[in-house]
């Protein structure tokens, strides 16, 4: 381990070098050629698309060139050769392992953050541009209390957030405004209008109604996220970062009724928060950032429904059945969003970093290894899943267990996304307004049931909406 690497390790301060175990019983190692292929075919497209904020032109190129399917095929080839793995990549100056077996996905996610830290080095460099104290890149006691704050504020175990009835009017109103805009535009729905409407919902739910049209904070976030795409290759713009945090702290202090910011402020006032107001403000950029993939996945979900009339019909029946409820659960729309995320994962690389040596059946993984779980390999592996390329909402009709194949759009285990239920609540109700009130035709793509593409470019997806 180089001194520079030691400094950037999330937990270890002293590393005595590899133990006899990791030397005498190493994990299998990919050849230099295989490693180069993984870098070129798996990592490069993922990083080029933009891990923190998508680059629309690259997403279009990756879709057109079929690079996502090639990435899955590359990992399948390695799995055939190396069996259970994990396989170490032959990276000069960097220890990196690729996970190949479903059991190891479960294990690694369950054993996070020790010995598999969420605060992986590259991720820390990417997120330091706008949220250096967020739970995801924290470790030890800091991580525990920041995680706890997220769990409480986001009501993470509850399918229906306790403030749902306060959030849903914003969801319905903004969907209505979007539908009026679409009608005025002759029925065409494109991603740009959807994204803007969606973020009006997000601003209102997270920060409060008066933030509905606050595009400045979102633009600041977008600029910092674009820097985050370059991780350590770009210096941090501390002024812009401070600006984000100041604005967010002001929103929490304002505590507009019905917003999550207000709930956070109440927790602070009642002394129920283990985190300081500063740390609290550092958690919120992650939410604003992560509501972006929620927009993408729900929009792609509309494409799934438009291409699967039977599923759309079932969804509409459920919308009608739950119409009288103040906070409908809408399981089929939730499953549609989960399927969209399985088919087109918005966090394709789940990264961990070992805080010590870890023993696997095939050998020992050294301390300080970056562990790559490439979700599309597990989500779209037609060699093991008969529903790999099919829209199959039924795979989400129960809480998935450890005994099952790992489908991990929101990760899993102690670091599972604490926003997952809130995302599903808001997206399902937003989509319900659209497909409940309009007929929907997909204009831009031809999705063939049973042969769904490896990537669906949300930016170019277009629909025609008409009166039902
Ligand atoms: C479709 C939308 C979303 C997806 C697919 C998603 C997915 C994920 C994934 C895969 C992780 C784990 C990342 C890792 O381990 O490296 C994660 C973590 C996290 N997500 Fe989400 N997320 C979404 C939206 C949200 C939203 C809207 C919020 C907040 C309102 C949120 C809050 C968080 C937080 C705080 C973490 C860090 C958890 C920890 O480290 O303990 N996410 N998310």
UniProtKB/TrEMBL annotation:
The keyword Metal-binding applies. Its cofactor is heme. InterPro entries: Cyt_P450 (IPR001128), Cyt_P450_E_grp-I (IPR002401), Cyt_P450_sf (IPR036396), Cytochrome_P450_monoxygenase (IPR050121). GO terms for molecular function: heme binding; iron ion binding; monooxygenase activity; oxidoreductase activity, acting on paired donors, with incorporation or reduction of molecular oxygen. Residues 1-12 have a biased composition (Polar residues). Residues 1-26 are annotated as: Disordered. Keywords: Heme, Iron, Metal-binding. Gene3D superfamilies: Cytochrome P450 (1.10.630.10). Signal peptide: none annotated. Heme binds at residue 417. PANTHER family: CYTOCHROME P450 (PTHR24305), CYTOCHROME P450 12A4, MITOCHONDRIAL-RELATED (PTHR24305:SF166). Belongs to the cytochrome P450 family. This is Cytochrome P450.
